[in-house]
Design a protein that fits this description.
heterodimer; A: about 375 residues; mainly alpha; two-stranded antiparallel sheet; about 45% helix; B: about 300 residues; alpha+beta; Rossmann fold; ten-stranded mixed sheet; 13 strands; about 20% helix; about 30% strand
Chain lengths: ~375, ~300
């Protein structure tokens, strides 16, 4: 017992030496240990704040710091490079981002295709080359220099022009490939940003095939202001020598049997036939109406004629010159008026003189001639 | 058809790195601040700028020229400067008769202004007014917000802005215990309409326990802020800006439960085992005769045909 009491006494003395690490607050603080933030919502002592500002704020700061330090010291620690570090929990204080959330990078056309087909190309960086007896990079750094060392001489292929410079030809081909690749890069870029770009047309190739030539001729032909409408046809020209981008593909559902779709298509045809509404052609309607009116009037005249026959002959000759009765006839059908004009004109040349010999002839109708 | 703008690839590796660093990321870099001077600045303000700059030196740039900007009238030149410096926070100091010792704190989201608050600086005491040992460069400070920061939208925005400005390094997984040595307190005195800012150095004393006893020493700067004009972000924009990326959200763990005693229980799904195909002991007596094998083969062929 004696020993226990002694130890306790000693501990109490030890504790007295140090100031306490506990802090009493009416309201608990809110902590964000991820960002080392505390929010203290306790009421401020405004009197002390005014009179003893520095000391009061220092006390508040000390107490709050003590509280958060107590919390931090309880977090799990680890030793990194002989320094004790605490693992901080994720921050809870919502702060706005600096930039937008990144979108996943759009795949290029080839990447998309490869992904769809499950193609995984893996080229080895280094391969053994028998010619130079060395491990040689297949791409990237130092590949070009190795290639240069390797191809100090080039074979002239059969049927090739012996005076052609094979080296410069190779350089030219390389340039072509690089340009093509750059074009593809730009097109991929445009695709990813949803920008429409014009069709490239045809890229030059070493040995163009017949289809290639056909497409080229089609493009050349359609490159006129009238889209090749008035271009003469070539002998043995293929009718559909279009570049692949211009050929319309048939949609899949026309090939796959789909009873619902088929029924719908047929029903739409049937509906179309059964529910046909007459189309109103205004010109035609007016013409028929005028024609009918004319017929009626002539019928009336006929009935009138029965009364006095002698006068009618005089009236008829008068009308032929373009009298009142012709008011409506000018708007008659094309074919009719043309016919009437030609035949009537001949007659007029004899009878009614130069005034009505020109365009005015059109108003004559075959009807009048018949009557004569 | 819109013309496809020329897209230039970076020509050097270094240039590429710079551009990559500027791209939006899932886990972002620590926000960078620029310090600007307006048309006129008082001596107090230039001291203020220098002292605050020295507090956040690692992630900030101070621009020394005078700028004829009025951020509340036209913020575009500041947005331009921020974009150029790849930063998203700014502290703009100007002095005029109407608004003496004026400081504008602001931030951008996606290179466009999110919010800004204009404050007046009063009763300023700089770093050199406190003849004490200062803290190490780039230490992450502890921030205390004392008093009322919630009643008005301006105060809560100011709180958010101050956290953004002074919280130091972001997204830290771990922090050295010896590295915690700086305290910033923001005390909102609603009666006076002021926010008092103080800065202290932490001294760890023995306490007879594991956790040390804390003592503080004021190191400066100390100043009061009085809120003037403000431009607060719309709720929608703030919501978009505060969004956490889908990839960073913690996924709930399936089939793991903790019971009341604190034991973790998991449910495991196992596929049906093919016991009939299990290889048992091989014996001569159990071996199939050639006839049996032939019959079996015929049957198999029949089934496949």
């Amino acid at each position: 017992m004696d020993i226990v009491a002694k130890v306790l006494e000693k501990a109490a003395k030890e504790a007295e030496k140090y100031k306490p690490i506990t802090v009493n607050k009416p309201l608990d603080l809110e902590y964000d240990l991820g960002n080392l933030i505390t929010v203290d919502k306790n009421d401020l002592d405004h009197k002390r704040l005014r009179e003893d500002n520095d000391n009061y704020l220092k006390e508040l700061a000390r107490d709050n710091t003590q509280l958060i330090i107590n919390k931090i010291w309880q977090l799990p620690t680890e030793k990194v490079d002989e320094v004790y570090a605490v693992k901080l929990p994720p921050s809870t204080f919502a702060l706005p981002r600096e930039k937008r959330i990144p979108k996943p990078k759009a795949l290029t056309k080839w990447q998309e295709y490869a992904k769809e087909k499950g193609i995984k190309k893996k080229k080895d960086k280094l391969v053994w080359d028998d010619v130079v007896q060395k491990w040689v990079p297949t791409y990237g750094y130092k590949r070009a220099s190795v290639q240069r060392d390797k191809d100090w001489v080039l074979e002239v292929p059969q049927n090739a022009d012996p005076y052609e410079d094979q080296f410069s030809k190779r350089v030219e081909e390389k340039k072509e490939r690089v340009a093509k690749n750059e074009l593809k890069r730009l097109r991929n870029l445009a695709r990813s940003k949803n920008i429409k770009v014009p069709n490239i047309g045809l890229l030059p190739v070493e040995n163009p095939s017949s289809t290639h030539l056909n497409i080229a001729s089609h493009l050349a032909k359609t490159s006129t202001a009238s889209l090749g409408k008035f271009q003469p046809k070539l002998p043995k020209e293929k009718p559909d020598a279009k570049p692949p981008s211009m050929i319309k593909k048939r949609k899949a559902d026309s090939q796959v049997y789909n009873p619902g779709l088929e029924k719908k298509a047929h029903m739409s045809i049937v509906d179309n036939i059964l529910n046909k509404k007459p189309k109103l052609d205004v010109e035609k309607a007016v013409n028929t109406e005028l024609y009918n009116q004319d017929q009626e009037r002539s019928e009336e005249k006929k009935t009138q004629k029965k009364g006095g026959k002698k006068r009618t002959t005089f009236q008829q000759s008068k009308r032929k010159g373009g009298g009142k009765g012709n008011k409506f006839k000018g708007e008659g059908g094309k074919k009719k008026s043309a016919f009437g004009g030609a035949s009537g004109g001949k007659m007029k040349a004899k009878k009614s003189g130069p005034k009505s010999a020109g365009k005015g002839q059109r108003i004559h109708k075959p009807k009048g001639r018949k009557r004569r | 058809m819109p013309v496809l703008q020329r897209v230039v690839k970076p020509t050097t590796r270094r240039g590429k790195k710079v551009l990559l660093k500027r791209e939006p990321k899932l886990i972002e870099n620590t926000k960078h601040t620029i310090f600007l001077k307006g048309r006129k600045t008082s001596e107090l303000l230039s001291h203020f700028l220098k002292d605050v700059y020295s507090l956040k030196k690692l992630h900030s740039t101070i621009l020394n020229r005078k700028n004829d900007y009025l951020p509340f009238e036209d913020v575009i030149p500041i947005e331009y400067l921020l974009k150029k410096q790849d930063s998203s926070l700014f502290i703009f100091a100007s002095n005029s008769k109407k608004r003496p010792n004026n400081v504008i704190l602001g931030r951008t989201y996606d290179f466009h202004l999110l919010d800004m608050i204009e404050v007046g600086v009063e009763s300023y005491r700089g770093l050199c007014d406190f003849q004490t040992e200062k803290v190490m460069l780039g230490t992450k400070p502890i921030l205390h917000f004392i008093g009322d920061f919630e009643t008005s939208a301006e105060l809560s925005t100011l709180k958010s802005l101050l956290v953004d400005m002074f919280c130091g390094e972001r997204n830290l997984n771990a922090i050295a215990l010896a590295g915690i040595e700086h305290v910033l307190t923001f005390t909102s005195d609603t009666k006076e309409g002021k926010i008092q800012v103080k800065s202290y150095r932490i001294m760890l004393k023995k306490s007879g326990e594991n956790t040390p006893r804390i003592e503080l020493e004021e190191i400066g700067p100390a100043f009061d802020l009085v809120v003037r004009r403000s431009k607060i972000a719309s709720e929608d924009l703030m919501k978009i800006a505060c969004r956490t990326p889908h990839e960073l959200k913690a996924k709930p763990k399936k089939n793991i439960v903790k019971n009341k005693l604190g034991t973790t229980l998991g449910r495991v799904h196992i596929k049906a085992q093919r016991i009939n195909r299990l290889q048992t002991r091989k014996m001569k007596g159990l071996r199939k005769t050639p006839e049996e094998r032939k019959a079996e083969r015929l049957q198999r062929n029949k089934r496949s045909a």
